[in-house]
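Dear Dr. H.,

I hope your travels went smoothly. While you were away I took the liberty of generating a structure for the chain from your last submission, since the lab meeting agenda had it listed for discussion. I wanted you to have the full record in hand beforehand rather than looking at slides cold. The sequence, exactly as received, is reproduced here:
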Amino acid sequence: MTRTTPARPPLLERIRATLAEPVLRALTVATLISTVGRGITLTLVVLYLTIIVGLPADQVALVFTVGAAVSVLFSYLGGHLADRVSARRLLIGCVVLTGLALASFVLVTELWQAILAEVAASIGMSANGAVRAAIIAHAFVGQGRVTSRAVLRTVTNIGITIGSGVAAIALALGTPEAYRAILLVGGTAYALCALALLRLPARVDGPAEGEADAAEPAPVGAGRSPWRDRRYLLFSAFAAVFAIQFAVTNVGIPLWLVHDTVAPEWLLSIMLIANTVLVIALQVPLSRGTHDLRRAGTVTAVSGVLMALACAAYGGAGGAGLALAVVLLLAGTVLHALAEILSQAGAWGLSFELADPASAGAYQGVYAMGFSLAGLAAPLVIAVTALEHGLAGWLLLGAMFLVSAVGVTGVAYRSAAQLSSRRDPAASTP
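The corresponding predicted structure, in token form, is as follows:
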């Protein structure tokens, strides 16, 4: 007799079932609203400070450098505080602070005001990310955590895309009043997402139910500081290095395409759209099962290979003719998007499963801090490799991604082996 595979429920039913969970529903609605606001400000703030306020380029760069530096500290601090005070109230405070800070850009007329606004926004956003991850760690277990992160990342891409479209109104009108009005809309939207967060249940303030007395032993001792967990620090360091790939999209590719290839500038828009569409379509399905340590390590290794190939394709476009350059850049975009999706899926699973549930916020803070450090260092790393040395630099950058992915995989597989030996001591060898 042939075994029949149960048919998967329709897409709308799967979405409805996912959002039936109250924590994920509240976080999803809040994320959609806030990222629409974030998409507006991401598109407009640099141009507003340059064109409307009249700050020179070096001062605008200083504003965002200071903000990135502040984010490093508050990424950890947000997660650390989420273990000690109400994570719900802390998250609400973070989004309100961020929204007000983003809206305050409309009042900026001088450099110090721009720095103050960006510092406040960076504090709110960096702490927000760590606290939200701590809430997911508190509210879910296993696959539920990874699925929640994947859903929220998909919604983030949708929200930022919508926000960028709204920002185009200000760009089309080009007046100071239009810039200020749309920026005010963006900041207000970000702050108003706090209303959705009011619906978070009280259980998000503590460890997930049943985790403390789970049958499986916890990866680390109860209440352990992440700064004393060498395995988690090593994983976070490797994951942070791989996170430099986000700046490849935002910084490296635009500069490389315009200055070092013969590809038309409008191709950049197609590449960004392709990345967004692939993430929205594939992040949730490709994240399934990555709560398992070995699977998380495997998908991370695959992402390293894909990212190395993407860098080779990007670099090869530098000396190619028009048709070949376009093909290589588009191929690199697809490979890069798949690497991004898989690397995030693997890292999310490991960031939760390697952490001590009793210190979930602090562990998520360390993980988020690594990403903030990557964002701070990424422009320099990309400049001294790919942008300065062409194809050789791109190949070096690809090798860096491959090594970091292999490092994450090594941590994952070793952790899985240790967990298996604790479950079955008879299976371990002297």
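Two observations you may find useful: The chain has 14 helices and no strands. The domain at 226-422 is CATH 1.20.1250.20 (Growth Hormone; Chain: A;).

With kind regards,
E. W.
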